[in-house]
Amino acid sequence: MNGRRVPAVLVDAALVAVALLDVWAHLDADEPLRLAFAVGAAFSLLLRRRLPLLTFLLTLPAILLSAAIFAGLVALYSLASLSRNRVLLGFCVVAYAICDMSSWPSPEIDLTETSTLITLGYTAATAAAACFLGQLVQARRDLSLRLTEISQARDHERMLTDQTVLAKERAQLAREMHDVVSHQVSLIAVRAGALQVGSRDAEVKEAAATIRGLSVQTLEELRHMVGVLRASGGRPTELTPQPSLADLQQLIDGSGIEAELRTDLPNGLSPAVQRAIYRTVQEALTNVRKHAPGAAATVSIRHQGGNVRVAVTNTAPTRPTLPLPSAQYGLIGLHQRAALLGGTVTSGPTADGGYELHLELPAEGGA
């Protein structure tokens, strides 16, 4: 702040000094009245930043009574650089021209003479030049402020864009962590639990219990991490590379449950539809392992009337359910993914104690 005030004070002091030199060059000491008004006009320039109109009015008597006009031009320039009232500036230009043309105490102006009109034109042009220069400085200052505002707005917009991209990436990570990592870890936990129950070797039982405990702990930590990532995420988008229908059989074979795949899908489905089907089957099989140990499952995928219908049905569990933690986002994620493609997901228990999950998507969804 002080770095800006000191130059302004020096500039004002220099203008006062030049105005006083103008007075010394045009006035004699034997004209005390004119000298007083001219000196007062010179020192009034110290007020030009705070009171520009008053400064200009204080310089008019000096313009009227003497040829020392520098202070008046500076005052008019200062007023034009700070005021947006064009009418006021026009009156000030006229007032300057009239006072400069008048010769007190005989202020008569004979407009019939050509020389008088030429002198009036030059005087008005001088005043207008000072006024236009002040307006130009004001426009430049406004433009600089506007450019600063635009730059700040762009920086803010860039920051918001970066935050949006980051939120989407966090949502992607949350989706993929839930779909892929929890699927594999829960499979490890189920296999370890089965090995712990079925083995007679004490060391094997202890190792299986350790593996199962670590898997359960990992799932719990994953659940918290997914919650944190989803808390600031936006609408999820897909990551590449992603699985397709060609990977379904491998998914079912490695699921650790007795499952059968029945499908008649044509070739040429969009990658988004294929990924949605894969993730739905993956989530359904994960839920079967968690909540229906020992159950058999059937995966049926059909193409009917321009829609793709997926049904994953499991029988009633034959073994006690293992207490595995759940991220609580599986079905929510399936609903979101299906909705993005114009489809629906429904689920519920069956009459024989099993469970069934249905996915229906337009065959051209996400094309």
Number of helices: 10
Q: Please compute the radius of gyration using only Cα atoms.
A: 43 Å
Q: What is the residue-averaged pLDDT? A: 80
Percent range for β-strand residues: 5-15%
Structural class: alpha+beta
Count of strand segments: 5
Weakly predicted, low-confidence segments: 1-5, 234-240
Give a short account of the largest sheet: 5 strands, mixed
Sequence of secondary-structure elements: HHHHHHHHEHEEHEE
* Cα distance spanning the termini: 60 Å
Neighbour order of strands in the largest sheet = 1-2-3-5-4
Shape: rod-shaped
Q: Determine the fraction of residues in helical runs and give it as a percent range.
A: 55-70%
For this entry, give a set of tags:
alpha+beta, 5-stranded mixed β-sheet, 5 strands, rod-shaped, disordered N terminus
